[in-house]
Amino acid sequence: MDNERDGRDRGHDGGGLGLWTMLLLAVVVLAAGLTARVYYARQAQRRAAAETALARAETALRRAELQRVALRTKVPAPKAADAVGSKTVTLDGVEMKDFRYQNETVGKVGLYVSGDTPASTKFVTGRFVLEPGKTPHAPHVHPEEEVMIVESGKGEIFCDGKTTKVGPGSVMYTTPNAPHGITNTGDTPLVFYFVKWEAKGDKK
Q: In 116-154, which positions are buried (b, 16+ CB within 10 angstroms) versus exposed (e)?
Protein backbone atom coordinates (compact mmCIF):
# COMPACT_ATOMS: atom_id res chain seq x y z
CA MET A 1 0.00 0.00 0.00
CA ASP A 2 2.77 2.43 0.96
CA ASN A 3 4.66 1.63 -2.25
CA GLU A 4 1.56 2.34 -4.37
CA ARG A 5 0.97 5.65 -2.55
CA ASP A 6 4.61 6.68 -3.08
CA GLY A 7 4.28 5.90 -6.77
CA ARG A 8 1.14 7.99 -7.09
CA ASP A 9 2.79 10.88 -5.22
CA ARG A 10 5.79 10.75 -7.52
CA GLY A 11 3.46 10.66 -10.52
CA HIS A 12 1.62 13.75 -9.31
CA ASP A 13 4.92 15.54 -8.66
CA GLY A 14 6.17 14.65 -12.14
CA GLY A 15 2.95 15.89 -13.72
CA GLY A 16 3.23 19.19 -11.82
CA LEU A 17 6.85 19.60 -12.89
CA GLY A 18 5.90 18.96 -16.53
CA LEU A 19 3.16 21.61 -16.39
CA TRP A 20 5.51 24.20 -14.92
CA THR A 21 8.10 23.36 -17.57
CA MET A 22 5.52 23.89 -20.34
CA LEU A 23 4.43 27.20 -18.80
CA LEU A 24 8.04 28.32 -18.54
CA LEU A 25 8.69 27.40 -22.17
CA ALA A 26 5.55 29.30 -23.23
CA VAL A 27 6.73 32.39 -21.37
CA VAL A 28 10.17 32.13 -22.98
CA VAL A 29 8.64 31.76 -26.46
CA LEU A 30 6.30 34.71 -25.84
CA ALA A 31 9.15 36.86 -24.57
CA ALA A 32 11.26 35.93 -27.60
CA GLY A 33 8.40 36.82 -29.92
CA LEU A 34 7.90 40.20 -28.27
CA THR A 35 11.62 40.89 -28.40
CA ALA A 36 11.67 40.07 -32.12
CA ARG A 37 8.68 42.34 -32.77
CA VAL A 38 10.34 45.22 -30.92
CA TYR A 39 13.58 44.64 -32.84
CA TYR A 40 11.91 44.62 -36.25
CA ALA A 41 9.77 47.64 -35.33
CA ARG A 42 12.90 49.57 -34.40
CA GLN A 43 14.59 48.46 -37.62
CA ALA A 44 11.58 49.69 -39.60
CA GLN A 45 11.68 53.04 -37.77
CA ARG A 46 15.39 53.36 -38.50
CA ARG A 47 14.84 52.59 -42.19
CA ALA A 48 12.02 55.13 -42.36
CA ALA A 49 14.17 57.76 -40.65
CA ALA A 50 17.05 57.03 -43.04
CA GLU A 51 14.75 57.29 -46.07
CA THR A 52 13.34 60.61 -44.79
CA ALA A 53 16.83 61.99 -44.21
CA LEU A 54 17.87 60.87 -47.71
CA ALA A 55 14.82 62.52 -49.29
CA ARG A 56 15.55 65.77 -47.45
CA ALA A 57 19.17 65.67 -48.53
CA GLU A 58 18.16 65.09 -52.17
CA THR A 59 15.70 68.02 -51.98
CA ALA A 60 18.40 70.27 -50.53
CA LEU A 61 20.87 69.23 -53.25
CA ARG A 62 18.27 69.84 -55.95
CA ARG A 63 17.47 73.28 -54.55
CA ALA A 64 21.18 74.15 -54.41
CA GLU A 65 21.61 73.01 -58.02
CA LEU A 66 18.60 75.07 -59.12
CA GLN A 67 20.05 78.11 -57.41
CA ARG A 68 23.36 77.57 -59.23
CA VAL A 69 21.49 77.27 -62.53
CA ALA A 70 19.50 80.38 -61.68
CA LEU A 71 22.70 82.39 -61.24
CA ARG A 72 23.80 81.33 -64.74
CA THR A 73 20.42 81.98 -66.40
CA LYS A 74 19.09 84.87 -64.36
CA VAL A 75 16.55 86.92 -66.28
CA PRO A 76 17.40 90.63 -66.16
CA ALA A 77 14.94 92.53 -63.97
CA PRO A 78 12.77 95.07 -65.76
CA LYS A 79 14.11 98.59 -65.58
CA ALA A 80 12.45 100.28 -62.64
CA ALA A 81 10.11 103.12 -63.48
CA ASP A 82 9.10 106.01 -61.25
CA ALA A 83 7.02 105.43 -58.15
CA VAL A 84 3.85 103.54 -59.02
CA GLY A 85 0.62 105.40 -58.36
CA SER A 86 -2.96 104.19 -58.29
CA LYS A 87 -4.22 103.55 -61.82
CA THR A 88 -6.04 101.14 -64.12
CA VAL A 89 -4.33 99.73 -67.21
CA THR A 90 -6.18 97.94 -70.03
CA LEU A 91 -4.61 95.36 -72.32
CA ASP A 92 -4.62 97.88 -75.16
CA GLY A 93 -2.21 99.99 -73.13
CA VAL A 94 0.34 97.18 -72.70
CA GLU A 95 3.19 97.05 -75.22
CA MET A 96 4.01 93.40 -75.93
CA LYS A 97 7.62 92.73 -76.88
CA ASP A 98 9.49 89.63 -78.03
CA PHE A 99 11.10 87.69 -75.20
CA ARG A 100 14.21 85.67 -75.95
CA TYR A 101 15.75 82.77 -74.07
CA GLN A 102 18.81 80.79 -75.20
CA ASN A 103 19.09 82.82 -78.40
CA GLU A 104 15.54 82.22 -79.60
CA THR A 105 12.22 83.99 -79.24
CA VAL A 106 10.02 82.00 -76.85
CA GLY A 107 7.09 84.41 -76.58
CA LYS A 108 6.02 87.97 -75.88
CA VAL A 109 5.93 89.92 -72.62
CA GLY A 110 4.37 93.22 -71.62
CA LEU A 111 4.34 95.19 -68.38
CA TYR A 112 1.35 96.92 -66.83
CA VAL A 113 3.24 98.60 -64.01
CA SER A 114 6.85 98.60 -62.85
CA GLY A 115 8.48 100.53 -60.05
CA ASP A 116 8.29 101.21 -56.33
CA THR A 117 5.10 101.45 -54.32
CA PRO A 118 4.62 102.95 -50.85
CA ALA A 119 5.09 99.46 -49.29
CA SER A 120 7.34 97.63 -51.76
CA THR A 121 10.23 97.89 -54.17
CA LYS A 122 10.64 96.34 -57.63
CA PHE A 123 6.87 95.94 -57.99
CA VAL A 124 6.09 94.46 -61.42
CA THR A 125 2.85 93.31 -63.02
CA GLY A 126 3.02 91.77 -66.48
CA ARG A 127 1.50 89.50 -69.10
CA PHE A 128 3.38 86.70 -70.88
CA VAL A 129 2.37 84.81 -74.03
CA LEU A 130 4.52 81.67 -74.07
CA GLU A 131 4.85 79.65 -77.28
CA PRO A 132 4.20 75.85 -77.30
CA GLY A 133 7.08 73.77 -75.98
CA LYS A 134 8.91 76.81 -74.63
CA THR A 135 9.95 78.18 -71.25
CA PRO A 136 10.94 81.78 -70.47
CA HIS A 137 13.84 80.60 -68.31
CA ALA A 138 15.18 77.63 -66.37
CA PRO A 139 13.88 77.34 -62.80
CA HIS A 140 15.37 80.31 -60.98
CA VAL A 141 15.23 82.22 -57.71
CA HIS A 142 14.95 85.90 -56.77
CA PRO A 143 14.37 87.92 -53.59
CA GLU A 144 10.90 89.03 -54.68
CA GLU A 145 7.71 87.18 -53.85
CA GLU A 146 5.76 86.27 -56.98
CA VAL A 147 2.29 85.26 -58.12
CA MET A 148 1.53 83.75 -61.53
CA ILE A 149 -2.03 83.35 -62.86
CA VAL A 150 -2.72 81.22 -65.93
CA GLU A 151 -5.26 82.74 -68.32
CA SER A 152 -5.23 80.13 -71.08
CA GLY A 153 -3.29 77.17 -72.43
CA LYS A 154 -1.70 74.18 -70.73
CA GLY A 155 1.64 73.76 -69.04
CA GLU A 156 3.65 72.78 -66.01
CA ILE A 157 4.82 74.95 -63.15
CA PHE A 158 7.80 73.94 -61.04
CA CYS A 159 7.55 75.55 -57.61
CA ASP A 160 9.86 74.85 -54.68
CA GLY A 161 10.58 71.24 -55.57
CA LYS A 162 7.16 70.23 -56.96
CA THR A 163 5.94 70.15 -60.57
CA THR A 164 2.20 70.70 -61.19
CA LYS A 165 0.19 70.51 -64.41
CA VAL A 166 -1.66 73.81 -64.88
CA GLY A 167 -4.38 75.31 -67.04
CA PRO A 168 -6.77 78.25 -67.07
CA GLY A 169 -7.39 79.53 -63.54
CA SER A 170 -4.26 77.98 -62.00
CA VAL A 171 -2.28 80.18 -59.61
CA MET A 172 1.29 79.89 -58.33
CA TYR A 173 2.70 81.75 -55.34
CA THR A 174 6.35 81.59 -54.40
CA THR A 175 8.18 82.91 -51.38
CA PRO A 176 11.46 84.80 -51.80
CA ASN A 177 14.34 82.68 -53.16
CA ALA A 178 12.20 79.58 -53.80
CA PRO A 179 13.08 77.89 -57.13
CA HIS A 180 10.30 78.14 -59.72
CA GLY A 181 9.63 78.10 -63.45
CA ILE A 182 6.92 77.51 -66.07
CA THR A 183 6.83 75.51 -69.33
CA ASN A 184 4.23 75.37 -72.10
CA THR A 185 3.41 71.68 -72.66
CA GLY A 186 0.42 72.29 -74.94
CA ASP A 187 0.07 72.96 -78.66
CA THR A 188 -1.28 76.52 -78.25
CA PRO A 189 0.21 79.59 -76.56
CA LEU A 190 0.19 79.60 -72.76
CA VAL A 191 -0.91 83.00 -71.47
CA PHE A 192 -0.22 83.97 -67.88
CA TYR A 193 0.05 87.05 -65.70
CA PHE A 194 2.75 87.63 -63.10
CA VAL A 195 3.11 89.97 -60.15
CA LYS A 196 6.41 90.39 -58.27
CA TRP A 197 7.38 92.59 -55.33
CA GLU A 198 9.84 92.92 -52.49
CA ALA A 199 8.66 94.46 -49.25
CA LYS A 200 10.57 97.54 -48.19
CA GLY A 201 12.93 96.83 -45.32
CA ASP A 202 13.40 93.15 -46.29
CA LYS A 203 16.89 93.67 -47.68
CA LYS A 204 19.72 92.53 -45.44
A: bbeebbbbbbbbbbbbeebbbbbbbbbebbbebbbbebb
